[in-house]
Design brief:
26% helix; single chain; 23 strands; six-stranded antiparallel sheet
């Protein structure tokens, strides 16, 4: 196939140094203003899904403008208002730079302060439960610290606090599945507390906040500066015009209004309507079932008259569903898109519309899975599984500007900062999942994981930070006298979704790639003895692998009696195990066997390209991805089907499926560092 025109624009011109963004837990990120304290509601309620309103009035003697950096921390999310204006929409990061510490935002509030009286309001959402992406402290609290000259704003007992009476828990199930720390949002407009952000609001009935002490103090412990930007807010807007929906209108019966989003996006839907009090409106998306497990929704109870509402918790999908009872006048329907703050700088154009659209869907799939962490999917889990991250971090270099690098670095630091005393690492972190996935962990620290991040970014400082932990983890693994690795059958010995996995082969090849990545890191940092150990161990393993498992025309391990597995044949090429004279035999396997999920398919396609069979790779890519490309959906699927036809739940917006973005950019366009 001849690509007649390829254009790919991105910022990877040689070496990209991440200057000014290097921040580890060991550095000076734990500073605090001595006068500021963690504050809580005096009831010390630890129930999940709490919403608290904190309020203070401060006087400043300064003119507007100029920088004043506020350090703000909470468990779990906050919305910051100054003088009635929304300054930060969903601040805070899901908790877990380490198993005990908490992230803190740094926000410039200078432009929003005025001379004289200023009202500062902070709405806090306390998840109150662990999940696969969040490590709960167990207690909702707020830390706020800002100083400029003589002006000091500090959270202390002078602040007022109340449990926001409009928020609560949904009366009816289903609840979001256990992997999500977020709960459904329930809002009763009849219990609204009025304009609590106004200067004249009477908060005398609110409680004085209770001081818990200055950082580091339990249960939030050390504060670590937020290593990624605040969310990009695309603003509140109307949905794409739908000829079947003419606003305003009045519902004549119980109605489900389905409005289309421009693409699969992270959104907070809203509305303006006129209603009598006590009617229930439900907001969710077509992604509510989340690939077999329930996602989040919002239940809204109307007040009386005209009312405007935007649910604060994000959800995603291609359509927003509003369930509205009869007799309600709908005046407007809106949504706000937010997401990771990065620019879409890469693109791929060719004479083949199929490949162009596959690249774009890969890019959209990547972006929908970026927020607090890289995610596997934004519905069922929102979790940082490192098999997914190894693929996503490379895609980001081709799709986005260098703001995206910070999310990869955050994930790398978290992976190693959560390392256990026995030197094992595990994912997803942060969160409540504790099982090691041995092969995903090898992928994370190896040639296609953390080393790939350095390969594109030249961020030596991060490699220095995590090198000791990676070294400890690789030495957890043992090899037999012949040089083959001893499989670690601990935790979840997952090799891929699907069938016909030759696990013995996969264990050895992922270990080989991990050794190669570690050898490169050791050479980079000048640890010659470690580099020599890794190289010698890997050479012995590769020699034993080929001698032990090569059956004349393919690889098979003893006792494996299923169809030949395409996955290890691909990894054998990428690890440098296969002699060049055997490439044509490996090609035959990869043209015949189709067992890899979209997770492992990237490596299968890359192996074909590395061996020089580019046309075979493109042909297989088209065959495997055709249903996804021809679908009306803007994102790629977890498996080769959706739902019951897919793997592991079958979500339709999965981060690991975008391998073609990297392959088309790097090998077809030929642009690589």
């Amino acid at each position: 196939m001849l690509i007649q025109m390829i254009r790919l624009f991105l910022f990877i011109c040689g070496i990209v140094l991440l200057q000014g963004c290097h921040l580890s837990v060991a550095e000076g990120s734990r500073e605090n203003t001595p006068d500021a304290r963690w504050i809580v509601h005096p009831a010390m309620d630890t129930l999940p899904n709490q919403w608290l309103a904190f309020r203070t009035v401060v006087n400043t003697g300064r003119q507007p403008g100029g920088e004043i950096t506020a350090k703000i921390a909470t468990d779990s999310k906050y919305w910051l208002y100054i003088n009635g204006d929304l300054i930060v929409f969903e601040g805070g990061l899901k908790r877990g730079p380490t198993p005990s510490d908490t992230y803190a935002d740094l926000v410039d509030i200078g432009p929003y302060l005025k001379e004289g009286e200023n009202v500062i309001g902070v709405l806090v959402w306390f998840f109150g439960k662990h999940g696969f992406s969040h490590n709960s402290s167990g207690l909702p609290g707020l830390y706020f610290s800002a100083r400029s000259g003589k002006d000091m704003i500090a959270s202390d007992a002078s602040w007022r606090v109340i449990h926001h009476p409009s928020f609560g828990s949904t009366d009816e199930g289903p609840r979001p599945n256990f992997r999500l720390p977020e709960s459904n949002i329930y809002y009763d407009a009849r219990e609204d507390i009025g304009d609590w952000l106004a200067s004249g609001f009477d908060d005398s009935s609110w409680y004085p906040a209770r001081e818990m002490g200055a950082p580091p103090v339990a249960p939030w412990n050390n504060l670590v500066a937020r290593p990624i930007p605040l969310w990009k807010d695309f603003g509140v807007r109307r949905y794409t015009d739908d000829p079947d929906i003419a606003l305003p209108f009045t519902t004549l019966s119980d109605t489900v209004i389905m409005v289309r989003l421009p693409y699969n996006a992270q959104v907070t839907p809203g509305f303006v309507l006129r209603a009598a009090a006590g009617r229930k409106i439900v907001i969710k998306t077509d992604n509510y079932h989340g690939g077999s497990a329930y996602n989040v929704r919002t239940d809204y109870i109307t007040g009386d008259g005209i009312q405007e509402f935007e649910t604060p918790g994000w959800m995603n999908g291609h359509y927003v569903h509003y369930e509205i009872p009869a007799g309600i006048e709908v005046l407007d329907l809106t949504f706000r898109e937010t997401g990771y703050d990065t620019e879409f700088t890469g693109y791929f154009n060719s004479n083949d519309p199929f490949l162009d659209l596959l690249w774009k869907k890969s890019e959209r799939s990547l972006y929908i899975n970026m927020r607090d962490t890289y995610m596997d999917c934004p519905d069922r889990e929102r979790a940082q599984w490192w098999g997914d991250v190894t693929l996503q971090l490379e895609q980001s270099f081709y799709a986005f500007d260098r703001q995206s690098d910070h999310l990869a670095r955050k994930g790398i630091l978290e992976l190693v900062n959560w390392q256990r005393a026995d030197s094992t690492i595990f994912s997803p972190v942060p969160g409540s999942y504790r099982n090691e996935l041995p092969m995903q962990m090898l992928a994370s620290v190896g040639r296609y994981g953390i080393w790939n991040y350095f390969h594109y970014s030249a961020d030596t400082a991060t490699i220095e930070d995590v090198y000791p932990g990676i070294r400890r983890y690789l030495h957890v693994w043992e090899t037999s006298p012949d040089g083959l690795v001893v499989p670690r059958t601990v935790g979840w010995t997952w090799g891929d979704w699907g069938d016909n996995k030759d696990m013995t082969l996969l264990f050895n090849l992922w270990y080989s790639l991990a050794l190669k990545g570690f050898e490169n890191m050791a050479q980079l940092l000048g640890h010659t003895a470690d580099a020599r150990w890794a190289a010698e161990t890997n050479l012995k393993l590769k020699d034993a692998f080929h001698k032990t498992f090569w059956k004349g025309h393919k690889y098979r391990s003893p006792g494996y009696d299923m169809e030949t597995d395409d996955r290890p044949h691909a990894l054998a090429v990428l690890a440098g195990v296969v002699p060049r004279e055997n490439y044509s035999l490996i090609r035959d396997v990869l043209r015949k066997e189709y067992h890899a999920s979209p997770y492992m398919e990237k490596y299968v396609l890359e192996a074909l390209i590395k061996m020089g069979f580019v046309e075979d790779a493109l042909e297989r890519m088209k065959e495997r991805y055709r249903p996804m490309v021809e679908s009306e959906l803007t994102t790629l699927w977890e498996g080769w089907g959706i739902g019951a036809e897919g793997f592991g739940g079958g979500s339709y917006n999965h981060g690991w499926s975008g391998g073609p973005l990297t392959l088309l950019s790097r090998y077809v366009a030929g642009l690589a560092p």
